[in-house]
Amino acid sequence: MAELYRRYGRRLYRFGVQNLGNAGLAEEMVQETFVRLWRTASRFDAGKASVGTYLYVIARSVAADVRKRPSSRPLLPVEDAKVPPQPDSVDQMLDSMIVREAVETLGPAHAEVIRLAQDQGLTQSQIAERLGLPLGTVKTRTFHGMRALRTALIERGFHGI
Amino acid sequence: MAYDAQHALEHPEAAAWALGALDLDDFRAFEEHLQSCEQCQAEAAEFAPVAEGLKRAAPAAEPPDDLELKTIAAVQYAVMAG
User: The whole model's pTM is what?
Assistant: First the structure.
């Protein structure tokens, strides 16, 4: 099991972060994926698929289950529930590239607050404390940053808008 | 509904709301405000797909060092529990 983790753990974790958008949920997904691998090992047919493919199939199923749990979606908009992520679609891969490119176009002050919120999961007051800024400034920067990001996404043909 | 730029400055929370980055008090207050404010509803609807796009495009991340041990422990626990 340790050998399998060393071979596939990192890739599964990244898959989890990308699909669930949260490091803690990605950890949960990785652990549960390996538990399910162990539980279903007798069904695995090495002649039909590699262990990696089998693990990926399990991980997708686990990610879908984790996503359904109420604890995985504390403050997200209701609309999110109607649009389950499509991890394998070309559109989504393109959209991810577009998003990364669009974030690069933001001014550093706007990009910073958005990255702290999105990548590190900080709240507005935590960001204010981290950057030594008034809370109102952080809220305004987040607002204008998201506005600019939305415009940049539309200009680039982002499918999600 | 005419867009009120001053109102947007007074209520910039829609962006952080979509990102799930509002502090709890602000979250509650904004959700209440959202019930009756068409402009903020429109802003929130516009920001939601942007936040979703950001979430899906999360950068490649390194798993924490202790995830291997946690994973092996989870499997061992499952083995013992049958």
Answer: 0.58
